[in-house]
Amino acid sequence: MTYLADEKRYEKMEYSRCGRSGLCLPKVSLGFWHNFGDNCSRDNMKKLMFTAFDLGITHFDLANNYGPAYGAAEANAGRILKEDFAAYRDELIISTKAGYDMWPGPYGDHGSRKYLLASLDQSLKRLGLDYVDIFYHHRMDPDTPLEETMGALAQAVISGKALYVGLSNYDGPTMERAAKILEELHCPFVINQNKYSILVRNIEQNGLKEASVKNGKGIIAFSPLAQGMLTDHYLNGIPADSRAAKDARYLKPEFITPEKVQALRALNAIAEERGETLARMALKWVMRDGAVTSVLVGASRPEQLIENCRAFEGSPLGEEELVRIDAATAGL
Fold first, then answer.
1. What whole-number distance in Å separates Cα of residue 177 and Cα of residue 179?
2. What's the whole-model pTM score?
3. What mean pLDDT comes out for the span 218-247?
4. Distance, CA of 93 to CA of 163 (rounded, Å)
5. What is the pLDDT of residues 282-314, one digit of tens each?
6. How far apart are CA 7 and CA 53, in angstroms?
7. C-alpha distances in angstroms, 83 versus 10, 58, 132, 167, 247?
8. Which residues pair with 15 in a beta bridge?
9. Closest CA to 115 of 147, 140, 152, 150
10. Do 98 and 120 touch, CB atoms closer than 8 A?
């Protein structure tokens, strides 16, 4: 059957501008880090993408090495984009990244011009696209001159293979240096992608959040639910069907300490008083002050996406609640 998107999809989602740019993103974006590898169901992938778009989620985020195997998420997404989303390409923001290990040898990793531009060409082939909307450098590379890495991002735009560029996992000072280079190159750098949640606040400590606001750049927060910890799954320890129990590559059991469980229970109590789930409150917290443009969520079931999109219903977090959230997580 031919997929037809919900005609009311844009009534279901709020959109925010990336800093001072003209680009808008949905408050909730769909990440392809998990659940789009070759070990996953193609039917479920389609259900996730259909559900997301029907909810007004227009932004699909990938990277060259998402899988397993490396490249699988792009290839799987590409087939679905060709089969079901061709009519909607101009309504979609497709992003991908390069910067981590992708292929053997000295040209398949980090931040050289050789690696970034070759990787982008490979990504476009897997995705079956002429261009991506955002191309990111995935991590800082202290061994490559920043001018070379930023020059490669600018070349991606000049060549028509990317519309905008972004930086991922950068700290504030390095991002500001990069922003100046990209401005001189007249390259549209619009967004930073970093891990950010109630439990992981590195961007507040390394200057990235403050620098993004000052320089008019957007932020998209990945792992806003701390790999599922900020849900009701871990309130009583580690359940047998949880990610920490089944796949310790990303959420190791030793991360779920008694102190963390105690903090999660305290956070859950605040959420219950508000009449919402811990996950909804956690997503609302990430976007509480307007600095974050979008939260990047992963999902294994369409129902999770529906729940995540309800996060911005109801009242915003009050000052007293924010103080209580900080107190509950102090010392972690």
1. 5
2. 0.95
3. 78
4. 10
5. 999 999 999 999 999 999 999 999 999 999 999
6. 10
7. 22, 17, 18, 30, 31
8. 26
9. 152
10. yes
